[in-house]
Amino acid sequence: MQKYLATAARVLLAQIFLLQVIALIVGFMSNPTGYQEYQAGLGSLGLPGIFAPLIIFMNLVGGLALLLGYKTKAFALIMAIYIVILSFILRLPVLQYLAIAGGLLLLYVNPITACSLDNFKK
């Protein structure tokens, strides 16, 4: 039962990153200048436009890795560090993102979950 609860936690954490990517892509598709507006929004927070594709890439790759349970321990740590840094740079609700980072760190400590690619390798 504990393995399945850890799997649910892994999937729920992954959906945070993946739904953000989906929302961005839908926004880009529905508005011809959506991507430029996203870059401008990041620019207004002090980030150059090059960070727009990097943020999307990190959310997509990290979210998929967590969803599929691929190298769960490594990606949980990477995404925890990433989300904390991003929350301070973009002035996001820090406590909310620290809570997400806490969940990712728990996944780092306990990466063994059911229904993951890590388990199929063994």
Unreliable stretches = none
* Tally of contiguous helical segments: 6
Rg value: 15 Å
Shape descriptor reads elongated
Report strand %.
under 5%
For the secondary structure, the number of strands is 0
Largest sheet: none
Alpha-beta content class: mainly alpha
Between the first and last Cα atoms, what is the distance in angstroms? Answer: 20 Å
Which percent bin holds the helix content?
over 70%
Number of domains: 1
Q: What is the succession of H and E elements? A: HHHHHH
The whole-number mean of residue pLDDT values reads 92
Summary of the model, kept short:
This protein is mainly α. It has 6 helices and no strands. It is elongated, with a radius of gyration of 15 Å.
How does the SSE layout of this entry go?
Blueprint: H1 2-30, H2 34-44, H3 51-68, H4 72-89, H5 94-109, H6 117-121
Characterization of this structure:
This protein is mostly helical. The chain has one domain (2-121). Helix content is 80%, strand content 0%. The chain has six helices and no strands. α1 (2-30) packs antiparallel against α3. The protein is elongated and about 45 Å long. The chain starts with a helix and ends with a helix. The model has no long low-confidence stretch (mean pLDDT 92).
Name its key features.
single chain; 6 helices; 80% helix; elongated
